[in-house]
C-alpha cells in the first residue's frame, strides 16, 4: 500500500452522495438545533436577571425597618454584590470573545487559550467578587436581626462551610476542566509552532 | 427559501463528503452523526461571517476543522460521563464494520498522529491545495510540506516495509 493511494481510498469511503430527502432532513435538523440553541442563551440571561431581581426584592424591605443598622448594611452589601455579580458575569461573557470558528487553526487556538485564561482568572478570584461579599452580607443581615448570640455564630459556621464548598467546587472546575483543555490547546499550538 | 438556506444547501451538496471525513477522523463511530450535525450547525450559524476573502469551501473547511477539534476536546468529558472506553485509541476513529484493510490501516494511522499532524493528513487526503491548507491551519506552505513529508515517512516506515519516499 502506497501513501498516495490513501487519498482515493479515503475519498471513496466518504463520498456517499446525499439523496434529496437526506439533504432536506439534514437541513431541517440543523435549523431546529440553531433555534433551540439561541433559545437557551436567552434563557440563561433571563434566569440571571430574575435571580438578581429576586435577591434585591428580598432584601429591599429591610431598609424600611428602623434600628437594624447592621442588617441594613448587610442588605446593602448583598444588593450591591448581586448587581456586581450580574455585571461581572455578563461583562466577562461579552468582552471574552469566543474564537471565530472560521479563523485559521492557529488563531483559533490562541484566542481560545486567551478566553480560557480569563475564565480561569475569574474562577480563581471567585472568593473576592462572589463568595466573600455575599457571605459577609448574609451574616450581617442575620446578626443584625437575631443579635450576636449563639444562633448567629452557628449561622456563620454554616455559611462559611457553604462558602468553602463553593470555593472548592470552583477550584476543582479549574483543575479538572479548564486547565486540561488549556494545556491541550497550548500543546497543539506548540506543535504547530515547531514546524513554522 | 432564504439566501442563507440556498447557500447552505449548495455547500452541503459539495462538501458533505469532506465533513463526513473530518467526523470520521475526530469522532468515534457512534458520535459521528452528532459531529457532522454540529459541523453543519456551526457552518449555518457562521455563514453571515463569510467575507469572500477565500473560497466558501475553504472557509467551510476551516469552520469544520475547528469545530471537530473543539468537539474532540469535549468528547473526552462526554466519554467519561458515559463511562465508555475512551482510552482505547483504536476505537476513537474508524468504522468497526469496515472490512477494508486499507481503510482500517488508514484509520489506525490517523489515530497514531498528533492532532496537528492529523489535520495536515486530513487536508492531504481531501486533496485541499497547499495554499488553502496553509490558510486553514495558519501554518506556512513550507511548514505544511515538511510536516507532510514526515507523516509520509512515518507511514511508509510503518506500513510499506522499507519503501521510503524521498520527495518533499
Structural class of chain B: mainly alpha
The CATH architecture of chain B can be given as Orthogonal Bundle
Q: Please provide the count of β strands of chain A.
A: 0
Q: Per CATH, what is the topology of chain B?
A: Rna Polymerase Sigma Factor, Chain: A
Report mean pLDDT of chain A, rounded to a whole number: 85
- The H-level CATH homologous superfamily of chain B, spelled out, is RNA polymerase sigma factor, region 2, helix turn helix motif
What is the tally of helical segments of chain A?
6
The run of helices and strands of chain B is HHHHHHH
Shape of chain A: elongated
CATH C-level label of chain B: Mainly Alpha
Q: Would you mind describing this structure in some detail?
A:
The complex is a heterodimer of chains A (196) and B (168). Chain A has six helices and no strands. By secondary structure, chain A is mainly α. Chain A has one domain. Chain A is elongated and about 85 Å long. Chain B has 168 residues and is mostly helical. Chain B has a single domain, classed as Rna Polymerase Sigma Factor, Chain: A, CATH 1.10.1740. Chain B is 69% helix and 0% strand. Chain B has seven helices and no strands. Chain B is globular. Chains A and B meet through helix 1, helix 2, helix 4 and helix 6 of A and helix 1, helix 2, helix 3, helix 4 and helix 5 of B.
Amino acid at each position: 500500500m502506497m501513501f498516495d493511494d490513501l487519498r482515493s481510498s479515503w475519498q471513496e469511503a466518504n463520498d456517499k452522495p446525499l439523496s434529496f430527502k437526506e439533504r432536506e432532513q439534514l437541513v431541517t435538523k440543523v435549523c431546529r438545533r440553531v433555534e433551540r440553541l439561541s433559545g437557551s442563551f436567552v434563557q440563561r440571561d433571563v434566569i440571571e436577571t430574575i435571580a438578581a431581581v429576586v435577591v434585591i426584592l428580598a432584601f429591599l424591605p429591610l431598609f424600611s425597618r428602623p434600628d437594624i443598622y447592621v442588617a441594613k448594611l448587610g442588605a446593602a452589601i448583598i444588593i450591591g454584590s448581586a448587581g456586581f455579580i450580574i455585571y461581572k458575569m455578563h461583562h466577562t461573557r461579552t468582552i471574552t470573545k469566543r474564537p471565530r470558528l472560521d479563523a485559521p487553526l492557529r488563531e483559533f487556538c490562541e484566542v481560545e487559550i486567551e478566553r480560557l485564561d480569563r475564565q480561569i482568572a475569574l474562577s480563581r478570584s471567585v472568593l473576592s467578587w462572589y463568595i466573600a461579599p455575599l457571605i459577609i452580607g448574609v451574616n450581617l443581615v442575620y446578626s443584625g436581626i437575631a443579635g450576636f448570640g449563639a444562633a448567629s455564630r452557628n449561622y456563620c459556621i454554616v455559611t462559611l462551610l457553604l462558602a468553602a464548598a463553593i470555593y472548592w467546587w470552583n477550584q476543582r472546575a479549574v483543575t479538572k476542566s479548564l486547565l486540561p483543555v488549556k494545556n491541550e490547546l497550548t500543546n497543539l499550538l506548540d506543535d504547530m509552532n515547531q514546524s513554522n | 427559501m432564504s439566501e442563507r438556506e440556498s447557500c447552505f444547501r449548495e455547500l452541503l451538496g459539495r462538501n458533505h463528503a469532506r465533513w463526513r471525513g473530518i467526523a470520521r477522523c475526530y469522532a468515534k463511530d457512534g458520535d459521528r452523526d452528532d459531529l457532522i450535525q454540529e459541523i453543519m450547525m456551526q457552518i449555518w450559524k457562521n455563514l453571515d461571517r463569510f467575507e469572500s476573502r477565500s473560497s466558501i469551501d475553504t472557509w467551510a473547511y476551516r469552520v469544520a476543522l475547528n469545530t471537530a477539534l473543539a468537539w474532540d476536546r469535549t468528547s473526552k468529558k462526554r466519554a467519561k460521563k458515559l463511562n465508555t472506553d475512551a482510552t482505547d485509541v483504536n476505537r476513537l476513529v474508524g468504522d468497526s464494520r469496515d472490512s477494508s484493510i486499507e481503510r482500517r490501516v488508514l484509520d489506525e494511522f490517523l489515530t497514531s498522529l498528533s492532532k496537528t499532524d492529523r489535520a495536515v493528513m486530513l487536508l492531504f487526503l481531501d486533496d485541499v491545495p497547499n495554499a488553502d491548507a496553509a490558510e486553514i491551519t495558519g501554518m506556512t506552505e513550507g511548514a505544511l510540506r515538511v510536516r507532510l513529508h514526515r507523516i509520509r515517512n512515518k507511514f511508509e516506515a510503518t506500513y510499506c516495509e522499507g519503501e521510503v519516499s524521498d520527495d518533499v
